[in-house]
Amino acid sequence: MYLAEKLKVPNLKFFPAIDKHLIPKALELSSAAVAAHEELPIYQYGLSMNKLNDYMASGKPTVFACNVANIVKDAGHFSIARDDVKKMSSIIKKIKNLSSDEIKTLSTQAKEIMRRDYNYTIIGKNYVHMLETL
User: Fold this and answer.
1) For residue 89, what pLDDT band results from cuts at 50, 70 and 90?
2) Separation CA 114–CA 73 (nearest Å)
3) For residue 13, what is the DSSP state?
4) CA torsion sign, 71 to 9 to 93 to 27?
5) Contact status, residue 122 vs residue 114, Cβ threshold 8 Å
6) Is the whole-model pTM more than 0.85?
7) Mind listing the pLDDT tens digit for each residue in 98-127?
8) Phi and psi at residue 11, in whole multiples of 5°?
9) CA dist., res. 2 & res. 23, Å (int)
10) Which of 1, 44, 70 is nearest to 79 (CA)?
11) What is the largest CA-CA distance in the chain?
12) Which tens digit of pLDDT belongs to each residue from 26-41?
């Protein structure tokens, strides 16, 4: 059981893992998306979490608790240190109070960066270029 469940934190729900094809529907029903990841030295070279791409593509305000370079930070959403509980609480309250225009701006930023920098065509071209320059 998660600590938030033990403490009965209102409006916070934890769900078991779901099939990949159900993620868009789950995100559609959500107000925001939150992910956390261990902060390891290897991530100075990059971090790839499919769930972050899914979250950003959904346009939902996204919080990522792992202080490494990542798409969430790039898109102007909320990226914090993993163990900063006070900051996490502050950000969740901030997201709860966002206006529809602010949410629309975050959504537009996320979708634009996904389209511009993280689609498979761009990633493939960058990968081929990297291999050709070795």
Assistant:
1) confident
2) 13
3) -
4) positive
5) no
6) no
7) 999 999 999 998 889 888 887 888 888 888
8) 60, 20
9) 21
10) 70
11) 54
12) 999 988 988 888 888 7
Nearest to 68 by CA among 96, 110, 89, 38: 38
The rounded distance, in Å, linking the Cα atoms of 75 and 81 is 17
Q: Residue 85: CA atoms inside 13 Å, Cβ hemisphere, count?
A: 2
At position 54, the amino acid (one-letter code) is D
Are the CB atoms for 42 and 102 separated by under 8 Å? no
Give percent above pLDDT 90 in the chain: 22
Residues comprising the chain, all counted: 134
Residue 82 has pLDDT above 90, yes or no: no
Q: Can you count the helices (H) and strands (E) in the chain? A: 7, 3
